[in-house]
Amino acid sequence: MSVMRLFSGVAAVVCSVFIPQVALAQVPSYSDPVIYTVDTGAFPATTYPSGYSLDNNYPWKASYPFSPNYTPYEQQLIINQEVALTHGSLGTDPVDGKPLITIDQGVIPEANNQNVQPAVTVTNDGASLPTGNQPFTKSYYRSEGFGNSLFGAGYVIDASMTATPSTGVAEKRVEAYAEGKVTATAFSYQKEVVRGRAEVSGQQGGNNSGTAKVYAMGQQIWSGNLVYSFEITPINWSRTFFSVSKTFMVGPVPVRVAASISGGVKLTVSGQVGPTVARLTAAAGGWANVTASAGVDIIIAGFGVEGSLSLININLPAFAELFWPFYSLDWTLKSTLNLNALSGTLKLYVRVGFWIFKKTWWLTIASWGGINQNWNLYTNNGSLILGMDPMGM
């Protein structure tokens, strides 16, 4: 008997859903108190009084006494010496035409070093036949992370199906389940930003339905019922998840960087549910990007942040099907992965004035070339001939 024949004469139900504009709790905000220092010898972690002026108040490296009173010739000697000592490059400030020395502090190690744990995969491939009251289960679980504690992302996919023999109290039952989670990390804070799940259960004379749910930052933002032959309107919902701040020493200036993590939720679900079939196709996923801004509490010639960073864009399709009409049990469990993660660059800069010239320091805190994975994670299917059915199979 085919799956479709089982539902002959039953009208297919399309679950058309409306996603309310749920007013989630105020966007969480976190702060990493540790100041990141690149060169503790030259530029140790430093704080200044609020409103303190560093312009014309921070010594240069040149051997000449720190003073504005120099002839044009002497000024050029000071600038040349300063360029040599800082290994900077000399240009012109487009704002006021002053000489501008640009110093590249380089790329911090955490900007592109992977140091998360390797992927974890758990499968239940050795499940026994459904005998007595013991259920027959096939399951697949995988978690994987990318990046490090400064910027990172990850996912979890969990899919299973279970056939439970009948008892003297209840008829046999078929169930299917799929869930996908997405995590985002910024400045030592890892949060689950997206979760989508769907589950169905079928039983003669019992429950023949299921639910689909969507979560953002741990809060349910939508749910819908799944009955008969179902297909929900695809969900695509976006918001700001959380923000984190951390201070970096860029040259002699402590720069407070605020990273806003925003993105969205994706979910599609379709399938069938009845007394002898549980069929579920669910694709949960989401995306998260970093938008950064910079702030200082002192007076300097300039500061800012350039670039953007994509943490993750992922789709986690899973297919689970159990078909148990009489004395045979057919199953299929599959999971695939479509992933783009860690792509982009974030650079900080500060500019300090020195009467006769200016200095700009640049620091790269994120530099990722992109991680792309599009492949089948898991496939398992089979058919069991159970013979006579003394237990109501």
Give structural notes.
The protein has 393 residues and is mainly beta. The chain has two helices and 17 strands. It has one domain. Helices cover 5% and strands 60% of the residues. The strands form two sheets. Strands 1, 2, 3, 11, 12, 13, 14, 15, 16 and 17 form a ten-stranded mixed β-sheet that branches. A hairpin with a 2-residue loop joins strand 13 and strand 14. The protein is rod-shaped and about 100 Å long. 39% of the residues are buried.
Query: What do the pLDDT scores average to?
Result: 90
Total number of β-strand segments? Answer: 17
Q: Unreliable runs, pLDDT <50, ≥5 residues?
A: 1-24, 388-393
- Quickly count the domains: 1
Question: Which percent range fits the helix content?
Answer: under 10%
Structural class: mainly beta
Task: Supply the key terms.
393 residues, mainly beta, ten-stranded mixed β-sheet, seven-stranded antiparallel β-sheet, 17 strands, 60% strand, rod-shaped, disordered N terminus, disordered C terminus
How do you describe this structure in short?
The chain is mainly beta and 393 residues long.
Helices and strands, with pairings:
Layout: H1 3-6, E1 29-36, H2 72-86, E2 89-92, E3 99-107, E4 120-124, E5 136-147, E6 151-164, E7 173-186, E8 189-203, E9 209-216, E10 219-227, E11 229-231, E12 235-250, E13 253-274, E14 277-295, E15 302-323, E16 328-353, E17 358-385
Parallel strand pairs: 1-12, 3-17
Antiparallel strand pairs: 2-3, 4-5, 5-6, 6-7, 7-8, 8-9, 9-10, 11-13, 12-13, 13-14, 14-15, 15-16, 16-17
